[in-house]
Amino acid sequence: MSKKLGFRKALETKVKKSQVAAKKKAISIFTAMAVAHVDEEEAGSGEVRYVEKVLPKGDFYIGEWCDGLSHGNGKYLWTDGCMYVGEWFKGKIMGKGKFCWPSGATYEGEFKSGFMDGQGTFTGFSGDSYKGSWVMNLKHGQGVKNYYNGDFYEGEWRSGYQEGRGKYQWQNGNHYDGEWRNGLVNGNGILVWSNGSSYEGSWEDGFPKGNGTFIFPDGSFYVGVWSKDGKDMNGSYNPSDSSTENPNWDPRIVCSEYLKDCKICPGERMSILPSKKIPHWPGMRKSTDGRQRRMSDGKLNCPSWSSDMYDVSATSEGDSKDGDDGIESLV
């Protein structure tokens, strides 16, 4: 526990230092560049041009510009140190780009209306990384996740959680290969411990449940029906010729002891989602229906790419479930 607390405090210190550095960098950029405040744009011209603009609330944009909005390639710097570099479409983050957090974390890949959506790679400040498919800020589809503690997962994701088939490798040498549901081991799969023991069979919410076989390193095995509480357990122990195990071995020890070293790491949490970072374009306001509109002449009317209807709360980058002693998140 003390090691975990020490690691957490070290990470928090690192984040605070990097945030201070990022804010100082943003301030130096704003003050060093001699650029005028945003002026009135000619609406409807359709001409794409290159601009450098200090925006309302002190944000800064440099890049291609059309009809009063970013359009093409450009860089946007928020005063809190967040930054986006990449493609824009009529004021929206759209296409390929890179979003950077003050902590040093980054996401590089595809965006749709401000959301991480498509193929992309998140790299956290603590060493976490995920490379794969995203849908509206959530890991969804095939992806590879490297956790800050040395664990590794490769397989299918759904709505931010491991779901489908996947392989999880713990840094201690244990590994599981099989089915997942809602971030937990569910269905059929095999868990192999670093000492050579293994369990192959049915799982439910991170615990052996149903038919399965536990094999010892010496070749002895226990086969039968498993359950978390032991009430419905029924099976037989079959010793090998060289067995050193106690013939009265209690299979409940698998749930109470063996799974203690098989916790799923929760991963790194984003401080804020890119879709929550709203660009402050000149003469724009957010109306009650979640849309941004130009206040001056009403000629420009564009949907907000951060409508409350589609907002997704900041989620853990190793989205996980809480539980007791099974294969679950490490709290």
Structure class: mainly beta
The mean pLDDT is 80
Which spans have pLDDT < 50 for at least 5 consecutive residues? 29-43, 294-324
Q: Residue share in helices?
A: 10-25%
CA-CA gap between termini: 11 Å
Mind telling me the CATH class of the domain at 136-267? Answer: Mainly Beta
Largest sheet: 17 strands, antiparallel
Give the helices and strands as they follow along the chain: HEEEEEEEEEEEEEEEEEHEEE
**Percentage of residues in strands:** 35-45%
CATH architecture of the domain at 136-267: Single Sheet
Q: Total number of β-strand segments?
A: 20
Structural account:
Keywords: Cell projection, Cilium, Cytoplasm, Cytoskeleton, Flagellum, Repeat. Residues 286-297 have a biased composition (Basic and acidic residues). The chain has 331 residues and is mainly β. Among the domains are: 49-125, Histone H3 K4-specific methyltransferase SET7/9 N-terminal domain; 136-267, Histone H3 K4-specific methyltransferase SET7/9 N-terminal domain (Single Sheet). The chain has two helices and 20 strands. The strands form two sheets. It has a 17-stranded antiparallel β-sheet, with no helix packed on it. The N and C termini lie close together (11 Å).
